[in-house]
Each structure stands twice: as C-alpha cells, then as structure tokens.
Amino acid sequence: MKGTIIYVNFSPYENAGKILDYLMENYSTILLFSFNFHRLDVHRNASRLTVYQHGKTIYYTRLYQTPTPPSLAFLLLPVRSVVIFLQLLWHTQKLKKQYGPYDTYFTVNAFTAWCGNILRKLGIVNITIFWVWDYYPPIHKNSIVKFMRWLYWLFDKPASRDTDTVVFLNKRLELLRRRRNLLPKDKRYDSIGIGTDPINKITPKHLNRIQLVFLGVIKKSQGLDLLFDAFEGTTNKHMPKLHIIGGGPDESHYRKRALISPLKVQFHGYIMDDTKVTDIINDCHIGIATYVPDKSNVSYYSDPSKIKRYLSCGLPVITTDVFAFSDEITKSGAGIVIPYQGKQLFEAITKIMKTYPQYQRRALTLAKKYFYKNLYKNLFAKRP
Q1: Which residues pair with 130 in a beta bridge?
Q2: How far apart (Å, rounded) are the C-alpha atoms in residues 171 and 272?
Q3: Nearest Cα to 274, choosing from 305, 253, 251, 250?
Q4: How many distinct helices (H) and strands (E) make up the chain?
Q5: Of 240, 222, 223, which Cα lies nearest the Cα of 231?
Q6: Phi, psi torsion values for 28, nearest 5 degrees
Q7: CA nearest 297: which of 135, 71, 142, 133?
Q8: Could you say which of 168, 259, 270, 378 is the most buried, measured as most Cβ atoms within 10 Å of its Cβ?
Q9: Each residue of 249-295: pLDDT tens digit?
Q10: Which contacts (CB < 8 Å, 24+ apart) does range 50-54 have?
Q11: Backbone torsion region of residue 357, taken as left when φ is above 0, otherwise alpha when ψ lies between -120 and 50, otherwise beta
C-alpha cells in the first residue's frame, strides 16, 4: 500500500465511479474532505473531514458550513471558497504530526486543485493530482451564475498548469483547454473516465411491471421533465414506476409534477448507504439519464457517473446525446440515445423491453470494459 493521501471532493460525488473505494484499497491513510454544495436533503450530512486507516474510520469531525439559503448559493460562492481553503489549511496542519507526512493531494475541482498547489508550496503535501472533471461554460441566463462561472475559470488555468499530475475525464476537456492555449503544446495528458463496478452475472427480472430509475442531483438540467412529459395524459393501467434517488435544488418542482402525473413516482431522497442505492437500482429495469441539451449545461464536458452506475448493475440506459460517452452506448447496444423529445423516450422504453435480456447482457459487457480497478492505476502513478 502507498502512504497518506488527502482527497478533496464535494458531496455526493466522493465515491463516484468507486474512486473512494480504490483509494481505500491502495492507500494506508486517507484524509477525506467532503464539502456540500447542493442542498441535497433537509437531513443531509454536514461538510466533514473523515480520516480512514486501512479502510476503517479513525477520525471524524464536522467542517464549518457557511449558512447558505438556496437563493444565495452562487452569490456567496467566493465566501464559501475562502472558508474551504482556510479549513483545508487548518486541518491539514493540525493533523500533520499525527497522520503525516502527506504524500499526495488529490482532487477533481479547479479551485480545490489550486488550494492543493498552495499547500504543496507551503511544504504540507508532496505531490498534487488534478483529475479534471468539469468545465463550466461562462454562459448562463442567470447573470450571477454566469459571473461565478467566469471566476471559477480563473482558477482553472493555474490549476491545470501548476499541478504535478493532470488527467482529464475525457478528450473534450483537454481539447477545450488546448484551443484556449491553456496547456503546454508539447505536453501529453491522459484521459481516464469514471469507472464501473460490474456485477458478476445478470439476474432475470419480471417484465410485467416496468421500473425506471433516476440517480443523481435533482436539478432541471438533468432532464427529469422529459420523463414526466413523455407520460403526460397516458392512461395505461400498466404504468411504469419511477424511482428517484437523490435530492437537490429542484426537488419540490418534481414532487409537484409527481402529484399530477400518471407515473407512479417514489422519492427515496439522498441515500448515504451505497448498498441501499445498489439494491434499488438492481430492482429496476432501465436507467434514465436524459440531460437537457443546452449550451450552458456542464454535462457536455463531463462523464456520466450515473450511467456507469446503471451499467454496473446490468441496466440498459436511455440518455440524450450530450455526453461523449453516448457514442459508446450506441455502438455497444447497451441502451438507446434519443433526442430530447418525450415521444422518443416513450418509444425507447418500449423497444428496450421487447428484447430486454439482450440489452441487459450488452449493458454488463460495456460495464466490464470500464472496471474501476483497471482504469485508476495510471491515475495515481507518481509522475511529477
């Protein structure tokens, strides 16, 4: 096992693609800083620092959470960012004698990557790794959101330039920065996507009652409206049931839609227990990931952790052509890529259910291609 790693991420993505599990398996000590951004649930966990040794929790403390009503979430981002940096500095220094030296600082966010480089310059950490997960287009109908995205972009250049190891989630993210001359022309970068944890074998399912599942932060850009639109006015007595796992800023909007929708909808809320999430997904037939194809949608430049989660359970996927990964869905036959139209979604569900076992097998085959233990080896090779 390697030594000590500081891992910084935002809830609920700490174990997206089994990344935290991989760290547990490969580092003797992990300091996980988990910060909240979205209001996921009224009973959600606070921002926290957890220290793991050999896979067991040995230290836990709540981090200071800047009081932020949803209406001021973006306006107060600079204040919240300063608080994050100060807490990283304070706690890493405070715990260094007990858990140091810190070999590696690892994060997926440009601002927290910038923070890591400051900690390295102060001699607190040795090596920094920035796994670039996103790009926030500085365009948005809300002028405050637009300005905050522009501020975030200011951290991206020094984070990408100064971090010891930079790895991109996909080629889109790298090419975007190359077009803007933010990366050295003579330097090569790896692309490593979100990993999967595929089940061992397919379990036959009853097909008389269709169960759909949506996993993730509940916000309109995730495309849940398309699902409600697809079934609006439908009177079929064998109506599918939709399971929604997660919470978020637009949850009340969808709870209102569910009250008048013919769809049977169950809101599970934000579930901390990963096993429970897997159990719910395993009981379903199709994973839904119908992102809104809008130029301001950050999903264009990301990698679909929810889709990888569906595939891991052998669930075929219905998605829109937003992610680069949608090409893999089409080529493999592990699901159906649709335009953002309710009619197309309805037809895709019908088509998958007609030959469901074949879609199941192809979904699991694609999942095995991205097994996380194989993917992440290069991510943590020390190459400053």
Answers
A1: 107, 166
A2: 31
A3: 305
A4: 13, 14
A5: 240
A6: -70, -35
A7: 135
A8: 168
A9: 899 999 999 999 999 999 999 898 989 999 999 999 999 999 998 76
A10: 51/95, 51/99, 52/24, 53/28, 53/29, 54/1, 54/28
A11: alpha
Measured between alpha carbons, how far is 214 from 125 in angstroms, rounded to an integer?
A: 39
Q: CA 7 to CA 307: how far, in whole Å?
A: 24
List b or e across 218-244, with b for residues whose CB sees 16 or more CB atoms inside 10 angstroms: bbebbbbbbbbbbbeeeeeeeebbbbb
If you write DSSP's letter for every residue of 221-236 in order, what string do you get? GG-HHHHHHHTTT---
Regarding pTM above 0.85, the answer is yes
Token pair belonging to 64 = 């200071």
Q: What is the rounded CA–CA span in Å between residue 168 and residue 191?
A: 5
Closest CA to 128 of 102, 164, 162: 164
Cα–Cα distance measured from residue 384 to residue 378, given in angstroms and rounded to the nearest whole number: 13
**Does 136 score more than 60 pLDDT?**
yes
Other C-beta atoms lying within 10 Å of the C-beta of residue 282:
15
Q: pLDDT-derived band of residue 40, with 50, 70 and 90 as boundaries?
A: very low
Q: What three-state secondary structure class fits 129?
A: strand
Domains of the chain by start residue, with CATH: 2-192 (3.40.50.2000), 211-369 (3.40.50.2000)
Cβ–Cβ < 8 Å for 348, 319: no
Q: Which two tokens stand for residue 54?
A: 């050999």
User: Is the distance from CB of 119 to CB of 88 less than 8 angstroms?
Assistant: yes
Q: What is the sign of the dihedral through the CA atoms of 131, 8, 372 and 23? A: positive
Q: Which residue has the tokens 């074949």?
A: 358
Q: Tokens standing for 171?
A: 């080629």
Distance CA 103, CA 7 (A): 11
- Give, as one character, the DSSP assignment of residue 72: G
Per the listing, tokens 């994060």 go with 107
Q: Fill in the DSSP letter of residue 376.
A: T
Surface-to-core class of residue 1, CB atoms within 10 Å of its CB (0-12 exposed, 13-18 middle, 19+ buried): exposed
For residue range 45-59, what is the model confidence (pLDDT) as tens digits? 689 999 999 999 999
Token pair of 174, please? 């790298």
Tokens of 72: 């001021």
What the block records as the tokens of 42 is 């009224």
Tokens of 200: 């061992």
Give CA–CA dist 194/308, Å, rounded: 7
